[in-house]
Amino acid sequence: MNFHKIRIWGVIILLFGLLYTMHAQGQVKADHDGNPNIADIVLTVPQTYMLCPTGTDSDVVALSNVGTRWLRGYVQLDFVIPNNGGRQMVQRWDVLQGGDYRLEVTYPAWETWPEGFFEMHVDLVFEIYPTEADARAGTNLLGTIGPGHPWDIFCLAERPIATPSPSPTPTLTPTPGVVPPPPPTPTPIPSPLPTEAPTAVPPVAPPVPSPADPTPLPTEPLNGELLGRTGVGRSPSPIPWLIGLVLWVTGGIALGLRARRRSQR
To answer: Do 82 and 95 fall into the same domain?
Structure first.
């Protein structure tokens, strides 16, 4: 038996298993498989990046295999306000259409984000109806994709906090009998973002977050979130690279034993 070939095949299978494990994350299917009315609809989200690059970036969200059914809902891009401050909407795309859906969501350059902000989310809510009339009236709902499913796009950007130079603050001299107005509080305003023409769509109520829920940390994924290159419903099988490792080790031991026998002759 050629143990050298066995060892080579072990290395090949080991490398294949490693590549399989690294690339198993990609297109994902939302966890609505238990609903026979919409189980065949596939939600595809991108391989997101935990740290957004300098400049603008974008991700594509798509629903396929919708067929003649209709979609009603929205895709919403939000800032996550620090210190449990909730969320601040950046842009919202209302959805009311039949057939498949595709949207490219553009993140603003993180250099333009408000001071102290470092996190963005894309929330997805799609209601599925059999006909256009049902979608407009909100009747005969077949099922819902999002929210509460782990398909939200997650984006982080750490920006160094600039230290402003001290400047004298003018003081108000009170006039007798008149209370001076309080100084205005500056509000951070993000750079203008492209907007789309409004579409008359029956509103879909967004999920109401609990005030007690903490702002998600970069290392603690919560329900309804994606962190980095994630999104697969189950972990990839370790069988390919385990088989490769076993074959590689077995081949190495066999080659060592054969070399030892030859040296003893």
So the answer is: yes
